[in-house]
Amino acid sequence: MSALDATALDALFLEARTHWQWQDRAVDDSTLERLHTLVKMAPTSANCQPARFVFIKSPEAKAKLEPCLTEGNRPKTMTAPVTVIVCEDLAFPETLPTLFPHADAKAWFDGKPAFTEETAFRNATLQGGYLILAARALGLDCGPMSGFDQAKVDATFLEGTTWRSNFLLNLGYGDPTPLFPRSPRPAFADVCRIV
């Protein structure tokens, strides 16, 4: 596999920004399906694939989401074309006979709720990161958020399921005009060790 060119690296990392204002452009359902096609191909432990995604697009669903958000996250979310509830499914071990047929991986989680929760959270969070990169690769802008009432989101959108919300992600075509200069990032020597 060859390295990505500078244009691709800019789109995924170097020039991509977190957006909070949005152009009045819809994101069609086929783009959301393409997002999932990319995300599901990225690695998770034992191909466990615990992430679940609720794509909120309709005005009715947005109205239900609004009271779950912190005050500062309401304007940016109400104007975003799509808000994704990135979730983990605590029943993911049930899918392992299909997704990881090479071993009895489901048995690894039998009677181990803490291990199940830890694995679901870690890998769904990883898949949420893949979702951001996939969205950027498809020309979308992203605005990930953790400012919401998890219990309210779960009660409103996930009641009766084994899914639990992890974080929210606004998707669309960002308006770059209000962006301030990129915040500093840490130096390699400050946060990395080679041993």
UniProtKB/TrEMBL annotation:
- Give every Nitroreductase domain span: 22-173
Highest taxon, organism lineage: Bacteria
Keyword Thylakoid in annotation: no
**CDD domains attached here?**
RutE-like (cd02148)
EC number from the UniProt entry: 1.-.-.-
Q: Name one GO molecular function term.
A: oxidoreductase activity
Q: Needs which cofactor? A: FMN
Q: Mind listing the UniProt keywords for this protein, alphabetically?
A: Flavoprotein, FMN, NAD, NADP, Oxidoreductase
Q: Which Pfam families match?
A: Nitroreductase (PF00881)
Which HAMAP family does the UniProt record give? Answer: Oxidoreductase_RutE_HadB (MF_01204)
Describe the family membership recorded for this protein in Swiss-Prot or TrEMBL: Belongs to the nitroreductase family. HadB/RutE subfamily.
Query: What NCBIfam families does the annotation carry?
Result: PRK05365.1
Name of the protein this chain belongs to: Putative NADH dehydrogenase/NAD(P)H nitroreductase F1188_18745
Q: Which organism is it from?
A: Roseospira marina
